[in-house]
Amino acid sequence: MHLWLRNFHLLAGLFSALMVLQYGVSTMFMSHRGWFGPPKMETTEVTINVSSETATSARALARELMDKHGLNGELRQGRETNTGYVLRIALAGFQHDVEYSRATGVARVKTQKRPARMTLTAIHQQGGLHHEHWVSNAWGALVGIVSVGLILLGLSGIYLWFKLRKERVVGTVLLVLSLAYSVSLMVMLRVA
Length: 192
Description:
Layout: H1 2-31, E1 42-49, H2 58-69, E2 74-80, E3 84-91, E4 94-101, E5 106-113, H3 116-125, H4 134-163, H5 168-191
Antiparallel strand pairs: 1-5, 2-3, 3-4, 4-5
Helix pairs in contact: 1-3, 1-4
């Protein structure tokens, strides 16, 4: 049992290591934006002709732009305006902001490609399996698997540490300190 648990602990740690590193780096980008200066976005603009018969709603317009005109992503925002539609099609690394005019049948598409640090921040905040785009769902599944793996990694680590009698005092002190600062900060952030 001990050998199996130790091997599982090692494999779970190795499998999760790059994801944890990515989350650590993206947390640093979110928490300390001023350290890195303003991000530089690559922006392009194009116009696309779309028949008003096809563009019957923001969702229908988005589907047309994705299926026939190569815009990739999922519909994040969409609303009707007096003159047409305004919508956003996006994934973590880019976004397409679309303004469509019914009168002219023209969709103006402004595409912003995010730099790597903004992409990391966006995927840090993204999760779940409810997305239209398969890449977002694959990411959500991976986050779920790694999250369960990290919980099991922590539990197996505590068990393996507890089996080492010589290290119990140091481990207990570190566990109590970790619990004290994390719970204290959560309470202070919630109350303050």
